[in-house]
Amino acid sequence: MSEISVATPQLLRRVSAGAVLDFMRASQAVTVTDVMEATGLTRATAISVCEDLMHRGWIRELENQRAFGGYQKGRPARRFELNERAGYVLGMDVGVSKATVVVSDLRGKALGRSSQPFAEADIPAEERIAVIDRTSMMALHSVGASPDSVLAVCAGIAAPVDRNGEVLVTQHFWGLFDVGLKAALRDRRGWTVLLENDANLAALGDRWRGAAAGVDDVVVILASERLGSGVIDGGRLLHGRGGGAGELAFLDMVEGVGDTYGIAALARTWAADALAGKAKTSLREFAAEGVEAEQVFAAAADGDAVALKILERLADRMARIIGAVATMINPELVVIGGAVANSAGVLLEPIARHLTKYTVTPPRVAVSPLGDSIVTVGAVRCALDYVEKNTLDLELAVPD
Asked: From which residue to which does the signal peptide run (predicted)?
């Protein structure tokens, strides 16, 4: 009983501090009265918690200013705000050919970004780690941030990752990403590193700042070169036993699909096939460099018959894919994401037209506005979630 009575004030203070920080993250400058109204704390407790958080560097007090244009009697109210530069998080997109790292402040604002290629896909683990580490240092240097100011890192990889951050290695391609990144960056930089599947992070990112904002039942499909999906059900990201929830290898067995090639890859391939024949098409002007999806969609918009045929094939194929996903998962919304999403809006109408043939529970379909940043946006969100959950256990390198 005595232990409970000793611990209770500490627990209450921790809960109070957490409530104040949550309010600060959702607000700009606030007064003590604002804090009291939002959290239910007494004035004395609210002031005490704010001063403690300020001392630890998580929030800062603003210079007092009287109301503009008039005289206010008495002492002006104290105002506080989140110190969004108290530390930083890194969001990583680790693909087959390159690594991209984004530096974000504690409000989720991207401050710097760097990308570096891998020499080849199947390089040794230590070389892959060296490129990722170098890319991280370049991103941090671009915003004048030091490595010891990084509070958390999340890396998205093109392989299934379970709830504990372990990579599912049941095929060679997935094994390329099982390089011991968490331990390596902890040893090199002292960082806490979270691993997650890239499509899962795309789902988190789009639900945070994309087409799926506010939607609790959504599937986000990365659809550029290869297809992969992240599933959010009832507001919760699904992993499955080994991290395989959302994997789309079953498409090999779906009639009219047969593989997991994405929109960009197939648009390129089908355009090349058309150009190998004698069909008259405006796409021939791009033949030397290779036709990309954006050029196919633009030509289709201008009425090019070959491009329109490719567009219809892609729409029907995506409708079959979305129909299969909708039949199994029944989401409210399916979002097409990845770099191809920048131009894939022209697919929405024909997809909707075909979709009712393949499922009796058709979802809404949208394209993500996040483009090729969708994975790093999700990685930043994942890292921020970790920081926000563990703020009171983290020590800032140099409190401001």
From this structure: none
